[in-house]
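S1.2 Input.
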Amino acid sequence: MLPYHRNVDTASLQRFRSAYFDVVHELDTIRLRAWEHSRITLPQLRVLFQIRRTPGITVGRLSKLLGVTFSTTSGLVSKLSVRGLVARTTVPGDRRQATLDLTEAGMAEAAAFSGDALAYLVAVGEALGDRLPGVVDSLEELARVARELRATRR
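S1.3 Output.
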């Protein structure tokens, strides 16, 4: 049972929770199938995708975006670096700072997870037709509210 919330009735919160998990399950199935055949952990995959989204990011910034500790992020980056998927470049004048980029192998690994999933998302978007803009607006609002709430809970 979900905890009581004074602004939204319990039935709506339960529908939201159920719908959220249904969407995640349906949209991630293809990507998760590809992940099952790889040797990359889900946290490492999150790191790869975030570095691809934000080339030149630092470990500190990456840890904040992922919502995990600096040491956890550093360990994940180290493992990916040893595998040749992530390159660290020391910032001139500050040896403690390093920027992160995907290597060619890292880009290929991230692309292998994205290809089929992206094609599936495009097909879902096309199937939504005229409803797509409203769905996108709702998803953007959901992401915004979740981001704001997460920022207040650190």
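S1.4 Remarks. Strands lie at 57-58, 86-91, 94-102.
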